Give the backbone structure.
Amino acid sequence: NAGVTQTPKFQVLKTGQSMTLQCAQDMNHNSMYWYRQDPGMGLRLIYYSASEGTTDKGEVPNGYNVSRLNKREFSLRLESAAPSQTSVYFCASPYPGTSGGRTDTQYFGPGTRLTVL
Amino acid sequence: GEDVEQSLFLSVREGDSSVINCTYTDSSSTYLYWYKQEPGAGLQLLTYIFSNMDMKQDQRLTVLLNKKDKHLSLRIADTQTGDSAIYFCAESIGGGATNKLIFGTGTLLAVQP
């Protein structure tokens, strides 16, 4: 049981290039989330998916697109990378709750470190 | 809007207690969380507290919640060098399928041997 996996772990892009960050969870959860982490700013929500086939914008969606391919996979795409998108990207999926089955808590993947030159 | 604030840095000696503080703004938050991030790693859930509780204890960790002042704290007893990490406070908003977490900026805990 790997939990939440992300690929790649590291990536360097030139301005204007595109790429897709992959995330997969093997816990059969409905919800999945993408965050970015920047120094001094904590984690900020980019997009989330409450269930297969649905996606919604978070706090900082500009410059990104997402696809919820199936229940297991949630990808984040940068169509034209910019230096401001240099960051660490985390995918998350709800952690099994213990209070009445509530699943608010989130389990994080190891992160993708992206540098845009 | 929602906002979560933390001090940026805390330094303690090994064996002492550490107290990391957090303030939040959304009074409708149902759960509040503490996550730990070690260098180069993802976030690990340490503990969480439901908003109708004042305190939760889990081994060396004690979480105190003052809902009136919107203040959350994490106390680590007998702090060890392995506790050195960044600690994030987070509040949940929305709930259910659309639950979102709002994170603080993180507090870097440095434990001196």
